[in-house]
């Protein structure tokens, strides 16, 4: 057994008591009014298929700040920052670093992501993309190598998490870096009880976790996987986080951590170099901006997937969905939502790529004018077997941003030429439910929506100095012109941290993990909370849908009424049914701000998350 194996096994009963006690302490410290019985507005109660007394609800109310994240230790770390007079950026960064420790299969310093920020005092929207990117050599030969013989090391792109989190904190945080990172360092050094989801993933991914001897000693001590309730201590990760807290980005992208990572990667055939690590920079952009009814939508820019959310909402804008009824109950509403999602997914698959390297018509795709063209495909008596992408380039060259988006200096139309097109292909659709999301709002109205990923569970399984490294190089697709490999290019991703404003105030902070199901999950939440007026905990537990683009298949969570499903079948859709609250459909964490300023946080019953406020 290696020296860094520090696993303390306890009886399941003892750890159950400790876990329950910890959750009770977190609840008491938060000062939030938490309830498993959210109340929906009377006008919408008739539409709600989920009983308002549902024990599935993971909900909190608070007057000041709120954090919704995938683990109570992470959410509490964010609330602690707020209570120490930190702002939403401090809280988001602290929460994200703790998620590195407690959700190593989803997030980590070897991964990447992005965040959408609202700075209320400046009435300004910000966006930073820190997704993992190719180095100087984008490994052009990788896709010609059979999966069976690819080295894990060659799946790794230059990780962006440390650069992005620290860059955001340096620009807009108020607390010292050491303070913000201390909860993560403590959780790695002292350990935490393994939760049920982590235990299940550890048991299911033995090959990835035993590929590296050091990782195996942590997650498979004595050759057996950690069980729920075991204490997971990660001393090597604690040392790396401590180095980052002390030295900033140099502690990760230069010096011994970077040197060891590059040596490990190159030993497996990766072309990444120390210069690639040293030169990585987070990409600050203005968020993609659109209007949905009375709300301003701030979403992720290409190559991430805010455009799919905005286009879906634009396609649905003219319909009075609330008069039809909930999509989970009424055939007309369900058909429109499924069709709109399918159209937007098709266009995204054709056109979205790295906007620094190729022309991406994101503004045209999300414009009302383009939606007017594409809306003719909604509600057809017989759906096409395969959708064909449209051409938004006229709109991209002519469309005007809304006055609010112009005032915010939002993401502008591309000045790059229209790329050659290729046959539209469906998005990669892995069954894994990787990635994590957190939502934060502080007492002053500043907000952060942050989505964070390793790619596959535990990324590529490459492990160095306590951290797993991503599998983002798999996200390139040489069959799609906009997403082909190139030096320093960022592959596209379906992640899209999103904020909605009502006037100049935050109304909704939302995002989700779940690969291709992420944009549809966000659309569902916007519709249910803002159109139907449902409480966030009710909205988050309703069933979701996910249509494919190159075949007439819709994956559906159980819970939708039979006549609504029958309408889809009549139109030619083939339905694949999933159990209720299946993690395949994401893990939304969101915060709704009521008109009186009360923050209502909700965590998805499909995952282990929690909302904590004060």
Describe the structure.
With 614 residues, the chain is of the alpha+beta class. The protein is built from 23 helices and 23 strands. Strand 18 (545-547) and strand 19 (553-557) form a beta hairpin. Helix 3 (72-83) packs antiparallel against helix 4, helix 14 (306-316) packs antiparallel against helix 16 and helix 14 crosses helix 21. The chain is globular, with a radius of gyration of 23 Å.
Name the helicity range: 25-40%
What is the 3D form? globular
Total DSSP E strands: 23
Q: Sheet with the most strands? A: 8 strands, antiparallel
Q: Give the uncertain stretches in residue-range form.
A: 1-55
Strand order of the largest sheet: 2-3-22-21-17-16-11-10
The secondary-structure class comes to alpha+beta
Query: How many helical stretches?
Result: 23
> Residue-averaged pLDDT, rounded?
90
List keywords for this structure.
614 residues, alpha+beta, 8-stranded antiparallel β-sheet, 7-stranded antiparallel β-sheet, 23 strands, 36% helix, 16% strand, globular
Topology:
Layout: E1 7-8, H1 12-30, E2 33-34, H2 42-45, E3 58-62, E4 66-69, H3 72-83, H4 88-102, E5 112-119, E6 124-129, H5 161-172, H6 177-190, E7 192-193, H7 196-204, H8 206-210, H9 213-219, E8 231-232, H10 235-247, H11 250-253, H12 255-267, H13 274-279, E9 283-285, E10 288-292, E11 295-299, H14 306-316, H15 321-324, H16 331-351, H17 362-365, H18 368-374, H19 393-398, H20 403-407, E12 436-441, E13 447-453, E14 463-464, E15 467-468, E16 498-502, E17 505-511, H21 518-531, H22 536-541, E18 545-547, E19 553-557, H23 562-570, E20 574-578, E21 589-593, E22 599-603, E23 610-613
Parallel strand pairs: 19-20
Antiparallel strand pairs: 1-8, 2-3, 3-22, 4-12, 4-23, 5-6, 5-13, 6-9, 7-8, 10-11, 11-16, 12-13, 14-15, 16-17, 17-21, 18-19, 21-22
Helix pairs in contact: 3-4, 3-6, 4-5, 4-6, 6-10, 14-16, 14-18, 14-21, 16-23
């Amino acid at each position: 057994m290696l020296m860094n194996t520090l696993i303390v096994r306890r009886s399941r009963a003892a750890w159950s008591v400790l876990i329950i006690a910890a959750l009770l302490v977190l609840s008491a410290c938060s000062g939030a009014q938490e309830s498993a019985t959210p109340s929906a507005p009377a006008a919408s109660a008739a539409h709600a298929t989920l009983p308002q007394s549902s024990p599935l609800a993971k909900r909190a109310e608070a007057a000041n700040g709120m954090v919704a994240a995938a683990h109570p230790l992470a959410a509490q770390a964010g609330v602690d920052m707020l209570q120490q007079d930190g702002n939403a950026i401090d809280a988001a960064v602290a929460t994200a670093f703790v998620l590195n420790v407690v959700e190593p299969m989803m997030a980590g310093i070897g991964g990447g992501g992005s965040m959408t920020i609202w700075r209320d005092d400046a009435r300004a929207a910000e966006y930073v993309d820190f997704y993992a990117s190719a180095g100087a050599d984008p490994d052009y030969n990788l896709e010609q190598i059979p999966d069976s013989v690819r080295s894990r090391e060659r799946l790794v792109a230059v990780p962006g998490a440390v650069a992005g989190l620290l860059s955001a904190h340096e620009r807009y945080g108020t607390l010292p870096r050491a303070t913000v990172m201390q909860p993560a360092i403590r959780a790695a050094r002292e350990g935490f009880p393994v939760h049920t989801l982590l235990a299940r993933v550890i048991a299911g991914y033995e090959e990835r976790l035993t590929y590296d001897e050091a990782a195996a000693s942590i997650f498979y001590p004595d050759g057996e996987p950690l069980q729920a309730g075991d204490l997971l201590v990660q001393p090597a990760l604690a040392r790396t986080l401590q180095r980052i807290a002390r030295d900033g980005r140099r502690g990760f992208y230069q010096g011994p951590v970077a040197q060891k990572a590059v040596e490990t990667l190159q030993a497996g055939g990766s072309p990444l170099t120390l210069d690639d690590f040293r030169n990585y920079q987070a990409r600050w952009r203005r968020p993609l901006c659109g209007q949905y009814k009375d709300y301003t939508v701030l979403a992720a820019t290409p190559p991430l997937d805010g455009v799919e959310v905005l286009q879906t909402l634009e396609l649905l804008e003219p319909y009075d969905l609330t008069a039809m009824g909930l999509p989970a109950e009424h055939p007309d509403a369900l058909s429109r939502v499924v069709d709109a999602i399918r159209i937007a997914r098709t266009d995204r698959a054709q056109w979205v790529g790295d906007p620094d390297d190729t022309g991406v018509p994101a503004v045209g795709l999300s414009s009302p004018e383009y939606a007017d063209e594409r809306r003719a495909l909604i509600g057809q008596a017989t759906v096409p077997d395969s959708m064909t992408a449209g051409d938004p380039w006229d709109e991209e060259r002519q469309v005007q941003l809304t006055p609010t988006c112009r005032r915010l200096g939002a993401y502008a139309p591309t000045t790059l030429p229209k790329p050659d097109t290729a046959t539209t292909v469906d998005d990669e659709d892995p069954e894994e439910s990787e990635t994590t999301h957190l939502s934060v709002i502080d007492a002053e109205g500043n907000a952060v929506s942050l989505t964070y990923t390793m790619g596959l569970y535990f990324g590529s399984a490459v492990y160095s100095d306590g951290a797993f490294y991503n599998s983002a190089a798999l996200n390139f697709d040489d069959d799609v012109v906009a997403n082909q490999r190139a030096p320093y290019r960022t592959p596209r991703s379906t992640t899209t941290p999103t904020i909605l404003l009502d006037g100049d105030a935050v109304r909704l902070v939302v995002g989700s993990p779940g690969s291709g199901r992420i944009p549809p999950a966000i659309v569902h939440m916007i519709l249910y909370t803002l159109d139907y007026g449902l409480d966030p905990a009710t909205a988050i537990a309703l069933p979701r849908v996910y249509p494919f683009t190159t075949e007439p298949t819709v994956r559906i969570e159980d819970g939708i009424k039979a006549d609504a499903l029958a309408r889809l079948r009549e139109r030619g859709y083939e339905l694949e049914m999933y159990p209720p609250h299946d993690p395949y459909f994401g893990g939304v964490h969101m915060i709704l701000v009521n008109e009186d300023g009360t923050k209502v946080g909700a965590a998805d019953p499909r995952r282990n998350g929690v909302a904590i406020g004060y």
